[in-house]
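Friendly challenge for the regulars: who can give me the C-alpha cells for this chain first? No prize, just bragging rights.
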Amino acid sequence: MISLNWLRYLRTRSLDAVTEDGRAAERYRLAAWAVLANIVSKSMTMAVMVLSVSLTIPYLGAQRFGVWMTVASFATMLSLLGLGVGNALVNHVAARRAIQDPVLLRQAVTGGLGFLMLLGLVVGASLSMLAVVLPWDRIIKTDDAFLLMEARDAARLFAVLFGLSLLTTGIQSVFAGLQRNFEVHVVSALGSMVSLGALWLAAHWQAGIPVLLAASFGIPLLSTFCLLGLLVRRDLISLHQFRIAVATETPGLLRIGGLFFVLQLGGMVGWGADTLIISSVLGPAQVAVYSVVQRLFQFVTQPLTMMNGPLWGAYADAHVKGDVKFIHHTLKLSMLATLGISLVGALILFAVSQQLLKYWTHGAVHVPVSLVGAMACWTVLDCCGSAFAMFLNGVRVVREQVIVVTMFCAVVLPLKLLGIHQMGLIAIPAAAVLVYATTHIYLYGFVFYPRIRSAVTTAS
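First reply, four minutes later:
Bragging rights claimed.
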C-alpha cells in the first residue's frame, strides 16, 4: 500500500483470500481505497482548517480565536469519556469478521453502537450542566464579560455535539474493523464540503464562536450518521435485539476498552490539555499562536494519518488469521515511509513557516522561530509513534502502551507546567519531545521488545 506500485491495488473486485498472500493483497486493496478516499476527505478537512484561520482571525482577533480553539480542543481532552469502547470495537469487529459468523458480527455491531449511544446521551447531558457552572474567567484568563458569555454558550453547544460524537466515533470504528474505512472518508468529504460552505457564510456574517463551532465541528459530525443507513442495509444492526446485544457485548467491550481508556486518559494529560494549560497561564491570545503552529504541521500529520490509519484493521485481521509475514512486511514499510515523509515535510514547513504564517494569518499572529522548530521535532516523533501504535493496537499489545503512556504523562505534565512559566510557549513541545524520546524509544526498543516480538510470532 505504501510502496510505489500501491496503485495496482486500486481495483473494485475482491482478491482471492484463501492463501496468506491473497489475504495480504486483499488487505492492501482495501487499505489503498481507504487512502484514496482519505486523501479527498482530508483535503476537504484541511481546507476547513485553513479557512477557519484565514477567514475568522481578522474579525475575531487573537483573543476570541483563542477561546474558539480552547473550546474545540475539549474534544481531545474529553475523548476518554468514551471509556475506550470505540477503540475496542475496532479489534472486536475485526475478530468477528475474521471468523465469518454473521450473527456474532451483527451482535457486536449492535451492542457496541447501542452502548455508545446510551453513553453519549448521559455524557452530553452531564457536560451541558457542567458548562453552566464552570468558572470560565479562570479557564480562559479574561475579565471580558461578553467573551465569557460567548465561551459559555460555545461550551454548552460543544457538550451536545460531543455526546453525539461518541456514537459517530463508534460508527467509524465499526467500519475500520470491517476494513471499509474508505466509505467513512467519502461521507466525511461530503460533510466537510458542506462545512466549508457554512464556515464561509459564518465568516461573511462575522458570526460568533458558537456558530463557527457548529459549522466546523457539528456539520462533519452529523454527516457520519449517514453511515448508519449502510449498516442497517447490510443487516449489521438488529434493532429488535438491541437490548440483548447491548447487555451481552458491553462487559467484554468495557474490559478491552479499559486499557484503551487509560491510553486516552494519558493522551489527555500528556498533550490533549496543552491549550488549556496555555490559556490558564498565558491567556487565550497565546492559544491562538500555539494553535496556528499546530495547524500548520497538520499538513504533515494528516497525510500520514491517511496512510497509516487503515492499517489498524489490517493488522488486526492478520493477527487473528496468523499472517505473520504480512505484519512484518507492513510494519517495516509503514515505519520507514512515515519517518521519511514526516522528516522531509517538517523541514520544509520549518523553512517556509514565517512567510506562510504571515500570509495565512494576515499578520495578526507573530510566531517565534523557536516554537516552530520545537513543533517540527515533535511532529516527526508523533507521526512515527502513531504509525507504531496502529501496529500495537492491531496485534493487541495494549497493556504495554498503558505503562509507557503513564510514565510519559507522569514526567511531561510537571515539566510543561513548570516550563511554561519559565520559557513560555516553547516549553510545551520541547518537554514533549524530550520525554517522548526518552520513554517511548527506550521502553519499546528494549524493555518491551520481547513482548512485542512474541505478540507477532504467536499471531493466531
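The mean pLDDT is 83. Residues 289 and 375 are 12 Å apart (CA to CA). Your move, everyone else.
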